[in-house]
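Morning!

This is the sequence you dropped in the shared folder:
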Amino acid sequence: MSANVETRSGARRAGAAEARAWRLGSAGVGAALVLLLLVNVAMGDLRPSAGFGLAYGVLAAVAMLGAAALAVRRRTMRLSTRLGLGRTRAWLYFHLYGGTLFALLVLMHTGFQLPAGVLGWWLWLLSLWTVLTGFLGLALQQWIPKALGSGLGLEVHYDRIPELVAELRDRAEELASTASEPVRQLHQRQVAPELAAPTRRWRYFIDPTGSIHARLRAFEYLRGLLGGDDRDGVTELEALLRAKLEMDAHYTLQWALRSWLYLHVPTSLVLVVLVVVHVGTIVYY
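The structure's back. Tokens below.
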């Protein structure tokens, strides 16, 4: 048992050290690029199509292609492992920090000025969108698992939520069919509409547990007015509704964790294609 704990602890320390090494290395590269840019400014040559500007553009293209290679790595896991192409974590770090350096290099390539021409504008806007949605995804991946694990009593897979909500609905209807009038009215007015289907609510992004507690206050009041079997019925309906609201929190936050990819991946693919066209145009002409 202690050996397993020590092994996990050592793995966490190694992972933290690796992440720190990537952060420091990327910060060092970024600082070197900024220093090089200052030298470039002092020389007075900020043209994107020549000298330093062209070099920045080439480096930006290399950084972007390297960051985009993560998608290929994930779809060729067995082949990549067999060829010894590195661990997925290292590719993920390069995707993150390489993408950040790509944004800096794009700005350096354009001389921190707005682009010219239709293709230039598309490249600039797609680069900005891709980087921003990448940071959004990173923030969601850091925050949502913590939000779901703090205060929520349920752990549920996103795809099973509609099925589980249907089971809660059936159980609540069965309970209400044999309950007294006050319990039936509580079910009809407050519980049945909630159990109709999974619901996404923006308030779960702010405070998942607080939103749930606020919706259950009426049960505490009603339970104090009733006694015996009626009180037990209210308690069970409250438990069913609490489970449904926690599933709604999962339904909302897990959906966001999945959906941000639709903001990031398609534009990334379009950006790769346009960068290839841009580089090909420069080489040809």
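Headline: The mean pLDDT is 84.

More detail when I'm at my desk.
O.
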